[in-house]
Specification:
Number of helices: 0
Strand content: over 45%
Order of helices and strands: EEEEEEEE
Structural class: mainly beta
Largest sheet: 8 strands, antiparallel, barrel
Distance between the termini: 16 Å
Shape: elongated
CATH architecture: Beta Barrel
CATH topology: AOC barrel-like
Helix content: under 10%
Radius of gyration: 16 Å
Length: 134
Amino acid sequence: MPTMARGTFEVTLNPLTPYNMNEGALLGRLSIDKHFHGDLEAMSQGEMLSAGTAVAGSAGYVAIERVTGTLAGKRGSFVLQHTGLMDRGAPSLVITIVPDSGTDELEGLAGTMAIIIEGGAHMYEMSYALGAGK
């Protein structure tokens, strides 16, 4: 049975030099810095690649971020992988803990994370299990 972790986070996104600015393929890059509070007390750093289109409300992004801190009191780090799409305004987002990326007391961590944004506040819900693959 998975365990749920919940809390809030602040995020800072900063533009990086884009890979490609050709018409029809607006590829951007951003650095990600987050500070998590709640069941996950941690900091993360990562990078996002985004693709915009000529159609309003359609875009995509992928991101990788390393999270370091404590989860339910257990210290270590792990990596999150994001895959996000906007299809003419309809969003979809999948955030997965990269298999075997957990270190120290978080070794064997597996699961997914959801991001909720309400009134400008960022919240997370993470469904996880420890000891997976051990």
